[in-house]
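Hey all, quick one. A colleague (J.T.) asked me to put the S-adenosylmethionine job into the tracker so the inputs and the structure tokens live in one place instead of scattered across chat threads. No bug as far as I know, just bookkeeping. Sequence used:
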Amino acid sequence: MTDAPAPEDVALPDGLVRRDFGGGETLATEGPVVGPEATDGDWRAWDASRSKLAATYAAGLDPGLSADATVLYLGAAAGTTVSHVADVAGPTYAVEFAPRPVRDLCRVADDRDRLFPLLADARKPESYAHVVETDCDLLVQDVATRGQAEVALRNRQFLADDGRLALAIKARSEDVTGDPTDVFDAVLDDLRDGYEVLETASLEPYHDDHLAVVARPR
Ligand SMILES: C[S@@+](CC[C@H](N)C(=O)[O-])C[C@H]1O[C@@H](n2cnc3c(N)ncnc32)[C@H](O)[C@@H]1O
């Protein structure tokens, strides 16, 4: 593992910029508006307090997003974060198992021809293996559920050998009462069955008791 650089030193891919919307610099992507968010022309503010992936950048980590990357996103909810990912990346498969947010996610995808919503359980990758490309460049995981390492391991099959996993571990989803540090260590230990952990960083102050992890398949 390496020390994370300062957030402003993390190189951003084409399509992702730092921009001041009036309250200081924040990340921004260009695309159709989703819900209440600050905009400037076609630029949309990507708020770290509403997105673990944006907070991962704010923590000084490079999650491996790149222009035209093929992305599998697990735990898409109503599409807040995955909309920004699809503004930047190529084909973006968005898995969410709760029907209600998927309705909103489908509306977000209506405006984006590279975003493909999938109503599916991320613990059962066989249910979407016929749709999702293999050799994905990036696997983003933000599923607030027990067994977060196991979900990442089961979906490793979709990643290219040189792909990246950008995972947000929520301690309380694994163990409500456990010390978050112990919980993170246990999840990272399990994750190492299939991944080499490259960088980790706390997502505070944006998201309490969350750890960002960037890893690659091994
Ligand atoms: C913290 S929210 C995700 C927020 C979203 N990533 C964003 O930033 O816009 C976690 C989501 O994971 C979903 N989830 C939990 N377990 C899941 C599973 N096994 N398969 C698919 N989605 C799951 C939940 O329904 C919830 O919408």
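Adding what we noticed when we looked at it: The mean pLDDT is 96. The longest strand covers residues 159-170.
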